[in-house]
Design goal:
By secondary structure, this protein is of the alpha+beta class. The protein has eleven helices and 14 strands. Strand 6 and strand 7 form a beta hairpin.
């Protein structure tokens, strides 16, 4: 590995100062993609700035019709939170299926969305729910935040502090994951909100997470399983790798969309 200095700041201000004073610094919060990339020589930061010790970034709270989750909150805390399970159970369920137990103990929501791995789960929930990403300098709607593979709208040195999730009428997430890597080959998050239906797809897009506008249009016209029957995703906009072809993913997305709709129907039957 490339020689790297490790820092553990105790405040947001200290973290930002450290970043500005180092030539090739990067923030780390969990590191489940960054560290493997460093081992493979794909990333060579001069300095790692670990934000997990900064007070006030590890929390889950409700503010009116929103859930606010701090950037260094671990996947397991999101999965086990009574607040999340009460107001956005689909988000708790999503967090509980990320990786394995070890990953969920160490991985954080902020680290996941800052890295924007095309196969990460959280981006689908942020985009599907229309969340807002709050940084040390501004607020970014999820529609503007996710740019492309491993790319976000964050400027150099900008630090994610928290994510604000609108509480939906109902939501569900379904994914098909690789047995080896445990990343989703396709994951679909569907949310009914006061402004309409939003559908986000992760693990399949050639440019990363995206909104499935055709599925949204169909469900906004008629929110039913039957409304999306016959819809076929365009393989040309999807990724192809060792795990699946683009045509396979095109079919898989709609299978997961139907499963997500069935999950919401099941939840409704128990209310």
């Amino acid at each position: 590995m490339h020689p790297t200095s490790y820092h553990r700041p105790s405040s947001v201000e200290q973290a930002i100062t450290l970043f500005s004073e180092r030539e090739e610094a990067t923030y780390i919060s969990g590191g489940h993609t960054l560290l493997p990339a460093m081992k493979q020589g794909l990333a060579n930061p001069s300095d790692l700035i670990d934000v997990c010790a900064i007070p006030g970034l590890d929390f889950i709270e409700q503010e009116g019709q929103h859930l606010i989750i701090g950037a260094t909150t671990s996947h397991v805390k999101v999965a086990q939170s009574d607040l999340v399970k009460k107001w956005i159970p689909a988000l708790a369920g999503l967090a509980g299926t990320i990786g394995d137990r070890q990953v969920r103990q160490r991985g954080t929501i902020g680290g996941s969305i800052a890295n924007n791995d095309p196969a990460a789960d959280y981006p689908a929930s942020l985009l599907g729910l229309g969340a807002t990403i709050v940084t040390n300098v501004r607020e970014l709607p999820a529609d503007d935040y996710f740019v492309s593979l491993f790319e976000t709208a964050l400027e150099p040195g900008e630090l994610v502090l928290k994510i604000r999730f609108p509480i939906p009428i109902e939501a569900a997430y379904a994914k098909f994951r690789s047995a080896a890597a445990r990343y989703p080959q396709a994951g679909v998050f569907i949310a009914r909100t006061k402004d309409g239906v939003r559908v986000a797809v992760t693990g399949a897009g050639a440019s990363g997470v995206f909104r499935a506008s055709e599925v949204e249009d169909a469900l906004n016209t008629c929110f039913s399983l039957e409304a999306i029957e016959g819809i076929r995703m365009d393989p040309d906009m999807l990724m192809e790798d060792l795990y699946a072809t683009s045509e396979y993913r095109a079919n898989l997305i709609m299978v997961m969309a139907r499963q997500a709709m069935q999950h919401m129907g099941l939840a409704q039957s128990f209310k």
